[in-house]
Amino acid sequence: MTVDPNAFLFPPGAVPHTRFTAKHGFIMATVNRAIRNGATSLQILEVGSWLGASTLLWSESIRHFGGAEIAGNSRVLAVDSWNPVLSSDDLMFEEYQEFAKAAKNDLAYNIFQHNAKLGTKLFGVKIDSIRGMSEDILPDIAPESCDIAYVDGSHYYDDVVYDIRLVKPIVKAGGTICGDDLNLKMEQVDAEVAMANGNRDCIVDEKTGLWYHPGVTRAVHESFPDVGALGGFWTVTKMSDDIFVPNEVRFDGIFVPSFLDRDDKVFFCDTINQYVKPRP
């Protein structure tokens, strides 16, 4: 396959994660808030990157809101195995089989490296990566070395709760810990069912009839007294080693990411419009 070095690569068969929704607008808001609060550089840790769609969004957001100088002083560090370990229950479903196929022969990893190299060139933010299991890598990252940590790796309870535990000391006081896939909080679901299904990626909650990730729901619930959450995105500010306060989740500066194709740009705009209340 011939690859254009000047074009981002998100093949459909590799589960590209380019169908951006409101939560991606909240990633933009997280960066914008940090810059408006005086950040002259941002060090971002992303746990779980896959093909690099969210990695590029962090990078382009820094460039969009902070300009070339702040972008040049910033870095996104992606930590991923690029080889997802999926439960036998989940591997029964076609989407998870696609993940497993994309990991074979390092397809997903090589696509990420291509996208990261091009993203660094276009947005000016250095994108680095460390390949391996987060439990092996995160303990070696210096304490209080990151402004933002984004947890978006495995959805299984043991993995998520451990990732959160490990990123807490890495984030500076005043920094942000956030993540994806908190579709429902613990108080919204049948807690017993959530506790019993930590090794399932996604199930339907009988109380609400909605799909959610029980492992993420339980892990976030046990890790923080409360979090700001909307559209799957969750976020807290680290006040000290033991104190974390929920952040308000709202749009704060929106742009259409340049690396999305036309259909994904339209999808993103349509999704954002559903959240924006019309003015009277």
Order of helices and strands: HEHEHHEHEHEHEEHEEEH
Cα distance, first to last residue? 52 Å
Main sheet makeup: 8 strands, mixed
Approximate helicity band: 25-40%
* Rg computed from alpha carbons, rounded to a whole number of angstroms: 18 Å
> Would you tell me the overall average pLDDT?
95
Helices and strands: which structural class? alpha/beta
Count of alpha/pi helices? 9
The proportion of strand residues reads 15-25%
pLDDT < 50 runs, ≥5 residues: none
The backbone outline, from C-alpha atoms, is: globular
**Number of DSSP-assigned strands:** 10
Give structural notes:
This protein has helices at 22-36, 53-72, 94-103, 107-123, 134-137, 157-167, 191-196, 214-223, 262-275, and strands at residues 43-47, 75-80, 126-131, 146-151, 171-182, 203-204, 211-212, 228-230, 232-238, 244-246. The protein is 38% helix and 19% strand. The protein is an alpha/beta fold and 280 residues long. It is built from 9 helices and 10 strands. A hairpin with a 6-residue loop joins strand 6 (203-204) and strand 7 (211-212). The N and C termini lie far apart (52 Å). Strands 1, 2, 3, 4, 5, 8, 9 and 10 form an 8-stranded mixed β-sheet that branches. A two-stranded antiparallel ribbon has the order 6-7. Helix 2 (53-72) runs parallel beside helix 4 (107-123).
